[in-house]
Design goal:
- It contains two helices and no strands.
- The protein has about 70 residues and is mainly alpha-helical.
- The longest helix is centred in the middle third of the chain and has 32 residues.
- It starts with 7 loop residues before the first helix and ends with a helix.
Length: about 70
């Protein structure tokens, strides 16, 4: 059963869906940035940003598919 977007629970769910992808991308980039600083590399931030984006997209598809 789909959540009503006008209810408090529905607003929270859809706000979480809207923020999931940018937050996971940012967390991935932040982890990669920290590892770049630790290991003196320059490519890990982009790799982990990609991992974060893919993970956020997969989570977004799973959550959005639960509404059907």
């Amino acid at each position: 059963m789909a959540s009503d977007p006008n209810s408090t629970g529905g607003i929270g769910k859809y706000l979480g869906l809207a923020l999931m992808l940018p937050i996971s991308t940012g967390v991935g980039y932040g982890l990669g940035y920290g590892l770049d600083a630790l290991f003196h590399t320059t490519w890990l931030r982009w790799l982990f940003m990609g991992f974060g984006t893919v993970a956020g997209f997969i989570d977004l598809v799973k959550e959005a598919g639960g509404d059907q």
